[in-house]
Amino acid sequence: MQNSTLKQSIVAFQAEKQRLSLHASQRTALQILANIDMDKIILAALTEQESAVKKLRRLIERERLKGTAGHWSYDLNRHIALKQALDRLKHAILVQAAPITIQ
Q: What domain of life is recorded for the organism (predicted)?
């Protein structure tokens, strides 16, 4: 019983550590690629968030065009990182905009 609980704790710790590592690398990549601080933009006003969404969409479109043209500077990992950042930001906006229900 104790051994099983310990194994579950280890697995949960490793999963959380991996999630935090991925989050940190995405934040760093976004800061370098788009000069956007994800933590600040999530707490910012809606207009700033919408501006960041537009900027990310433009960057993704530019990256997509480079990819379809076969440009030497196209990077699939950069394209994926930008898309993940956009999805995360859109999710954060939806969570903030969702009405709070009291039961």
A: Bacteria
